[in-house]
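ok, trying the design again with the full structure, not the truncated one.
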């Protein structure tokens, strides 16, 4: 029996297997609204055999988006457009769906990667003044962000709660809060971006105070059966940056506050980062977090081969693996992994006859009959 294809519980949410499709920004929205692209994109992924699909980083406010083309869930129009998208996806798939809610902070007001990714100045078309823990730009050439004051902190927290309530109304099966990749909540956690001298700065206890307040506010606003978890960067890969021991302390506090899981990534907060990229290069960080908590931990980062994914889970390093680009390249990755590991997954009956000669179809309920 493949461990990768064993069920996993995230609180009250039961996943059919331990393959998670990680959030991937599409830069395809207008005014934060989902559209036909998202229906096609998410529809492909929802037929992939994975255990959970997490939608892309979704802004909790217009200024919380990474780019003007990023998805949002801060308006009635956003909610209505996403409802239509989800209706289409759910009509063809029973895969559990979650959404990642985030605020870009000082990395907002950016051009899409297709346009170079540089900051859009506040006075340029499509641009806005960003906010952050401290008035330090992500790049030396960026317009410095506004340091959040007490009213700004309250506003951001309220935005997270409002978007989470919209997500609950839309029927999402889980909510992931984005505390990674150099975005606002990570900016509070990292000493490279947080130079505050109030209760929200200093040591890790102060730096994690606002992310914890956001999590606790979201958790308190939602039904107990709806799981909420976080994505974290467990290393900044830069001198003076956050280290995994601090993220382990954060994860323990989150678990005590009702967090359902920890999704462990790294990097994103510093232009000086030096990341030793290679297959599974972040797994050791996820392992360290798993040693600190009893809730499920996900590993992500260049996990592309079924045998590698199986080894990571089967040896108990983590509880699940998350893949992103691998699913863009091969939207049937879950099928192929199941076939390689002798497991079964849900698959549309219209595609049951797609397996090549010599490959046993890996579909639950498979039957082949033709007159």
């Amino acid at each position: 029996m493949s461990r990768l294809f064993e069920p996993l519980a995230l609180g009250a949410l039961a996943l059919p297997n331990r393959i998670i499709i990680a959030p991937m920004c599409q830069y395809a929205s207008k005014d934060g609204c989902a559209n036909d692209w998202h229906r096609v994109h998410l529809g492909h992924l929802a037929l992939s055999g994975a255990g959970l699909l997490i939608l892309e980083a979704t802004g909790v406010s217009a200024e919380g988006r990474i780019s003007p083309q990023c998805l949002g869930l801060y308006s009635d129009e956003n909610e209505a457009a996403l409802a239509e998208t989800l209706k289409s996806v759910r009509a063809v798939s029973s895969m559990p769906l979650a959404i990642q809610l985030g605020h870009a902070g000082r990395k907002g007001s950016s051009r899409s990667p297709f346009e170079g990714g540089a900051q859009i100045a506040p006075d340029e078309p499509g641009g806005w003044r960003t906010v952050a823990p401290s008035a330090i730009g992500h790049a030396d050439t960026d317009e410095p962000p506004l340091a959040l004051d007490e009213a700004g902190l309250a506003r951001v927290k309220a935005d997270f709660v409002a978007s989470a309530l919209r997500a609950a109304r839309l029927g999402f099966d889980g909510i992931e809060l984005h505390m990674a990749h150099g975005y606002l909540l990570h900016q509070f956690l990292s000493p490279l971006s947080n130079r505050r001298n109030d209760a929200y700065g200093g040591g890790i206890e102060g730096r994690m105070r606002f992310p914890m307040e956001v999590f606790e506010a979201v958790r308190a606003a939602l039904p107990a059966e709806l799981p909420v978890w976080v994505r974290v960067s467990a290393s900044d890969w830069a001198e003076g940056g956050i280290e995994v021991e601090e993220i382990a302390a954060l994860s323990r506090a989150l678990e005590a506050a009702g967090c359902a899981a920890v999704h462990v990534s790294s990097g994103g907060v510093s232009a000086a980062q030096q990341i030793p990229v290679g297959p599974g290069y972040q797994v050791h960080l996820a392992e360290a977090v798993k040693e600190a908590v009893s809730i499920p931990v996900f590993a992500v980062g260049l996990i592309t081969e079924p045998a590698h994914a199986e080894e990571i889970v089967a040896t108990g390093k983590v509880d699940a693996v998350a893949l992103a680009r691998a699913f863009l390249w091969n939207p049937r990755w879950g099928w192929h992994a199941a076939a390689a590991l002798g497991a079964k997954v849900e698959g549309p009956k219209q595609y049951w006859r797609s397996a090549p000669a010599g490959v046993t179809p890996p579909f639950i309920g498979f039957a082949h009959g033709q007159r």
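Keeping the full-length input from now on. The radius of gyration is 20 Å.
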